[in-house]
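Batch job 17 of 40 flagged for manual review because the log was empty.
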Amino acid sequence: MDFALGYADSQEVLNFNSGTALWSGQVIYEHDPQNEPPFRSVLIKFTYYGDTNVDGKVNIADFARWADNFNSNPSRWDRGDLNYDGTTNIRDFSLLANHFNWGNSGDTHPQLRPLSGSLPPISELFIAMLDRPAIYWESWLDPDLRNLFEPYWSLNLGPAPAIPAYLQSQVQARGVPEPAAALMTPLLCASTLKRRRR
């Protein structure tokens, strides 16, 4: 399940210049040629799950739109309701996270492919979660998301945010994830060996 019909309010997702914008090869008018009052267009696209701004890509901009509407009800696609159940919640985030970085290349699962000399793109999404405590901890409690982000929970990419009050009992029952020194040790050893060989 990779694709869906996504939609967005043109005024919310497009930057207009002189009353028009280009979207998917089409000119979208925000004002008609006779300077009538502004009107809105609904943009509809067959796109990836997670593409909240219907630009054909799933990236950090889509996460920001989704996160700004987290736990809102009622909701809609361009505000993060990716499964059309009326609420922007962690189930929608699972769809976004599993398609993160799709549309940027023809590669399958590009969110997991390491970039040259850096972490895979999905790490950008994990780091963005550090600024959103509810999303961070709800993701950690969700088995599918915990599995997707498994390499990052223990890498100490930033301090874990405070646990929201409504999640404290659930998180404490599962045990709080800690940075794993065991995972960091091989990285430090590899770095030391490279320096010695020079």
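Reviewer: the log was empty due to a logging misconfiguration, but the result itself is present. The chain has one domain: 57-197. Unflagging and moving on to job 18.
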